[in-house]
Design goal:
mainly alpha; 45% helix
């Protein structure tokens, strides 16, 4: 799926946060510390980022 622009629970804008989060965690940084440094403190917003699964590449195969 495409990362939602806003948190479903509280409405905070998260659309521009995921790319930086993904890059930093792939480099080996701790996910919790990255979210803290980015200012993502609420549990609902953290859940949105941590549980996001990128499936758009799989879906695009069936675009016929």
């Amino acid at each position: 799926m495409i990362m939602p622009v806003r948190c479903f629970s509280c409405g905070k804008v998260l659309g521009g946060v995921y790319e930086e989060f993904k890059e930093r965690t792939q480099k080996g940084e701790d996910a919790g510390k990255v979210l803290d440094e980015m200012g993502i403190k609420k549990y609902c917003c953290r859940k949105m980022i941590l549980t996001h699964a990128e499936t758009i590449d799989d879906i695009m195969k069936f675009n016929k």
